[in-house]
Amino acid sequence: MDLNNIKKSLLNESHLCSSFDCGDEDLNDFLVNDALNNQKINFSVTRIFEHKNDIVGFYSLVNDSINKSKIAAEDHITEIAYNSYPAIKIGRLAIGRKYQKKGYGNFILTNSIATAMFYSNYVGCRMITVDSKVDAIDFYKKYGFKEAHAGRKYNAGSSVPLYKDLLK
Asked: 25, 47, 92, 159: which has the fewest Cβ within 10 Å?
């Protein structure tokens, strides 16, 4: 893995999104058909990671909040009485098939967390959230994400809400 040759940029019309394949039709479709329009209307912002004009992966960020009742008691912020906490959500994150299991997912996820931390200095944001596919939960947990509604059972096709406190 040569991260020195990875270029990060905001999604724009010049990106060749139609050739991207991460193995998940929903994520592929989002990048090809929705991401740019969502960005134009300020619903999400997508960052693309490329190697020689080949899309390695991407993530999209959106504003979010998480209800205090959905997170572990030890993660409640006692200094305030609010019932929900401001968050940035990883709306989508995907790695192209030929780049999977090679460390690029780690690189792109940590970049998304760093971006959320950077922007938390400009807008109130304490948490980062993601609705993870069931088979990706362990990947996120390696980076300190926890299940919201811990202990709840999920079907294979459903998504699992996860969160991470940006200050821990």
From this structure: 25
